[in-house]
Amino acid sequence: MDSYSFSRKDEARLPTFPPPNFDKVKSDFFRACSLFCDDDCDRDRSGQARKGEKVAELDLQLDAFFKDVNEMGLPDQLTHTITSNSRWLTEFWEDIAYKSSRAPPQLAANYYQVAMQKCEHGIGARGGEEPNQLHVQVEVAAKLAEAVGRVKTELEDGSFPHDCWGSEWMGMWQYDRALKACRNPAVGKDELRLMSKQESSHFVIIAEEGRQIFSIPFFSSFKVSSSSSSPSSHTAEKESIEREQTRLSSLELAEKIEEGRKSVPLLSAPFTCLSGINRDRYAKVRNGIVMNDDARSALSHLETAAVVIGLSNKKYTDFSSRGEASAFSFKHGGSLCSYDKQFNLIIFADGAYTSNAEHTVADGTVGVGLLDRTMEIGRMIEREVFEMGRGENTGVLEKGATPPCSITPVVFNMTKQEEEECWNAKQENIRVGQAIDIHVMEGDSHLFEPSVMKESAIPRDTLMQVGLQLAYYRVAGRISAVYESAATRRLQYGRTETIHSCLPSTVEFIRYFSLHSSSMQNDGEKQKKGQTLLRQALSELRSHQKDCSFGRGFDRVMLWLHTQYTSRTGHPHPLFALDCVKHAYRYRISTSQATCRLAKGIGFTPSEDDGYGICYSFGSAGGVTATVVCGPSSPTSAKDFAAVIAASLYDLHQLLPLPSHC
């Protein structure tokens, strides 16, 4: 296999993970958990719980835990593992967080992407005809497939734009396998299948609500360049011919799929819906189906595809809001994508499209980068095709021309019981999707104006995190553990670390501000104290964020020690049965920041039924776009919580002594 050919040279340039400082791990863990010894967050039934006693119990059990793991030699073992194997964290995290999860992956992955984009040049028209729905959708699919094919080539030859954080390079190994992997279900623990570039040299189109599936090889695509240099006349003529062939390929593909949809019988059930249910249950059904040689071959087409493209009968204009359209990637029931694939695109009847990603293979930031590049190349293709012009014969193959593409129907032969499983899975997935409420918030462009943030020495992400916690306190009347994802891609084979953003200084500020905000405007002393507390909160949180990003977090180390202890003793340590520890890992606020150039909104589902998931990105002018997702038992709707977030950010902005030009 050549799955890592692109990554080896890049990963070797990055520093390795530092060995853990176990004293720091212990103190940071204590800091995160001791917050939830507070009576305001955790009272026993008699209402007489005392914070001091709980803190003392936490301290006692934490000391006992480290004494036990030291006697087992686990810290030394972990230090040796980190220094001798740069992939240890990747493999451990994939096994624990993803492959061992038995929950439906569209929720367990806690991630989806959205990119609402419409083609603007009347695609699908031929000789003055009005485009029909199928031609519109398939030409969008062809354009996106062309773009994905080019992205795949860039990843294979090393020309894909390299990610950087400031002046630092970031690891690209996740990109390398993003289009060449699939999460396959297995009982107890899933498997990650990696394919060669030859195996993943096709894409899949799903139509008729999952009952028609076609496998299509990537057809010849012209080279897309972002270079501004002018080509020679010879090169321009050559590219014009290639663009014309691409245009014919798109139309030929539409005709072939239209022909296929008429001639190929519908599947008896939407097989892909199974990818959205409990993994053990899916594995058993899948194992039965693949006993048939034809079904095994059909399944291989789906699981090895670089991208899965679903054609929906709904129009983007059928939805009342962008958030509702975004939620469709959950609510279609899994009939238009495979939740086991890293990259899915769902195209609406009017040419708009959305995206869904399973991130066992690659993290959310990688998925966003992949989507951004696909959209960028797709727009180039669209622009070049439009500028080429539309003559009367455009889209008509010359007599005797060889069709530039072919399609293979993917057919599953299932028993009645297997068909019933598929239909039940679809309804189950739809019920899960209907419980998810999504709202896309676009904040004031002045809140995070880059020059103001820089002059004030205030990191935008850190201020956003405090604003989210203040908003939650206002709607729930209590603090909550906060999950923030930190990318560790500055390090060899880094994935993510958990930032526990709820810290003592943040809690102190939020409680003080909530109590005195109404009187601060007329009370200079209170306002000054509020500003001081906020600055302290921002400073402490920023330091913790940096630690996590550079491999000095505590969450993964504590998780590894705990799993190893449990494996050796057969039972969990009493430390992790403490209520304060449970509360410290009950994330009612799950957050992530993503850098987006073209994608409009990246979703992040809540990890608790009564919580919120917020994924946000900052615009170059200072605005913020946040996709807010609420669970079925959350205190407010997603839209209402978004309004509270906006108000909280405005209040923080007003409190801070920012430069007058803001």
Can you describe this structure?
By secondary structure, this protein is α+β, with helices and mostly antiparallel strands. It is 47% helix and 12% strand. It has a 6-stranded mixed sheet, sandwiched between helices. Strands 12-18-17-15-13-14 form a 6-stranded mixed sheet. Strands 1-16 form a two-stranded antiparallel sheet. A hairpin with an 8-residue loop joins β13 and β14 (496-500). The chain is globular, with a radius of gyration of 26 Å. 46% of the residues are buried. Residues 1-5, 120-128, 221-241 and 390-403 have low confidence and may be disordered.
Would you summarize the structure shown here?
The protein is 47% helix and 12% strand. A six-stranded mixed β-sheet has the order 10-9-8-6-7-11, with helices on both faces. α9 packs across α13 and α16 packs across α21.
User: Main β-sheet: number of strands, strand sense, barrel status?
Assistant: 6 strands, mixed
Give the overall shape, derived from the CA principal axes.
Answer: globular
Return the average pLDDT rounded to an integer.
Answer: 84
Name the poorly predicted regions.
Answer: 1-5, 120-128, 221-241, 390-403
Total DSSP helices: 21
Span from first to last CA? 54 Å
List keywords for this structure.
globular, 662 residues, disordered N terminus, alpha+beta
Topology:
Layout: H1 8-11, H2 22-34, H3 51-71, H4 74-84, H5 88-99, H6 105-108, E1 112-113, H7 133-157, E2 164-165, E3 168-169, H8 173-178, E4 181-184, E5 191-194, E6 202-207, E7 212-217, H9 233-263, H10 279-289, H11 293-304, E8 308-311, H12 322-331, E9 344-347, E10 353-356, H13 364-388, E11 408-410, H14 416-434, E12 437-442, H15 450-455, H16 460-476, E13 481-487, E14 496-500, H17 504-520, H18 524-549, H19 555-569, H20 579-584, E15 587-593, E16 602-603, E17 612-618, E18 624-630, H21 638-655
Parallel strand pairs: 6-8, 8-9, 13-15, 15-17
Antiparallel strand pairs: 1-16, 2-3, 4-5, 6-7, 7-11, 9-10, 12-18, 13-14, 17-18
Helix pairs in contact: 2-3, 7-9, 7-13, 9-13, 12-14, 16-21, 17-18
